Amino acid sequence: MAVTLGLLAGGAGALALGQDVSGDLFNYHFYNGYALVAGRIDRDLAPAGHVSYFNPLVDALQYLGMRHLPPVPFSALLGAFQALNAVLAWGVARHLLGGRAPWLAGLAGLLAATGQNAISLLGTTYGDNTASIPAVAALLATVGAERPSGARVAVAGALGGAAVGLKLTMAAPHVGLGALVLWLAWRQRRPALLAFFALGSLAGWAATNGWWALELWRRFGNPFFPFLNGVFGSAYLSPLPMWSPLEPWQWLRPAVDAAVGTDFGLESIPRDPRFLVSVLALAVWLVACGWSGQRGRVRAMPGRGLPLYWLAAYLSWAAVFHNYRYATVLEFLAPVLALVLLCEIWPRRTAVVSIALAGVLAVATSPSPWWRARSWGAFWFNATLPALARGSGQLVLLPEMKTSFAAPFFPADAAFVGLPQPEYRGPAMTAAIQARIDAHGGPLRVLARSPGDHAAALAAFGLAIAGPGEWVRFGHGHRLLICPLERLKPDGE
Asked: Most buried of 75, 149, 205, 280 (most Cβ within 10 A)?
C-alpha cells in the first residue's frame, strides 16, 4: 500500500510541477536519445559538443517515451518511476529504524520524498533521479541483512555499478558502498565479500556502459570520453579537469551552501538543510563515541554502517562533483541517516527530536523550479520546419548549445555537426569537422538563434552565410533561424 501511494504521489507531483523544458533537455538529452535509437553516431559529429558522447541509455529510453506519448502521460509515468527513490529510502529506514518505531521509517520516507532534488527533478529528464534508483537499491540490498551473503553483496555491487555506468556522478555513492562493504568484510572477518563486490560492480557497469565504453575507445581512444581526458589524452578534446584541491574548510562548504541557498555551480539556487543536519549529527555522534571511548565503552556503529557509507559518499561528491543536483542519492538518504543518529544520541527523546527535525526541514527547504513550462503542451517541441529546412542532403552546422534537440525533426538524411568552443575542441575534432565540410557535396546550413553572431566561427571553417534565413518554430516560444551557407573563396581568387 505504501509503495503504491508513493508511486501515485510521484506521478501526481510531476504533473503539478509542470512540463520539463530544461536546458539540458534542449542541449543533449533529447538528441542523445535520438542518436542511439536512430543510429546517428556515424552520420552526425558532436551536435551538442562533447556532451554528445555521454552514455545515451537513459536518454534513449526517455526519447522513446517522448516520441510515443504526449507530455502529460509521459511525465506522470516518469515521475512515478522516479518516486522509487523515496520508496527505496523508506525500505532502508524500515530495516534500520523499524525495530524502534515503525512510524520513524515512514517519516524518513516522507522526508526523502520532499527534498530539494526529490521535488525539483521529479518528472524531468535530467537523469540524476533515474540513475540514482539502482544506487539506492544497492544500499538497500546491503543493509537488508545484518550479515549479508556473498551473493547479496554481489547483487548490491552490480546495482551500484550499473548506476555508475548510467551516469558517472553515481560514482560517489558507489565509493560509499565500497567503504561499507570494506567495513563489513573487516568486522565480520570475511575478505571474500570484497571479491564479490568487485565482480558484481564490474558486471553491473559493463551491462550499462561497457558497450558504450568500447565505442568511445574505438572512436576517441578514451573509454570515458569526454571525462578523464587528462589521463587518456584523446586529441578530440582538451583535457577537462574533474576536480580541484579542496582546503579543509571547503569539505563542509557544500552542506552550508545548500542550507543557506548559496550558489555553487547550479542551474538555480536551492535551499535544503538536509546535508548540514546530517553532517552535524555525524559530528555529534563522533564526539559521543569519543566520550564513550574515554570511559572504556566504544559505541558500535549504528545503522549497519550507514554513517560510514554516507560520509564516504559525501566526501567523494564534494571532492569531485560539487554540484547539488549530482547528490541525489545523498539527499534521499540524509533523513534516514539523521534519524538513525538521533536515535543513538537521544534515545529517550527520539519522538520529540524527530518531529522537530521534520518541522525544520519542511520550513527550511525551498525547491528550485529547474526550468518548468507554465502550461502543458499537446506534443513535445511542436516543431514546424520552413522550406529551407526540409531539403534533402543537408549538412547543418550547430554553433550554439541547446540546439541539437531540433535534429530529430529534420529529414532523416540530414547530417548535423556541432562547432564546440575552441578552448574545448581538440585538434582531431577540428580536423574531423573540416573534413566533413570539405567532403559534403550537398546544401550547407547553419542553425542558431542568431547565426550572424557566429560569423567568425564559420569563417574558421571556410564558410559564410549566403542569404536570409527562415525560422524553425517550436512550442513554448522557442525558435531557431536556419540560414544557407557558402564556401569562402581562397585569398587571391
From this structure: 75
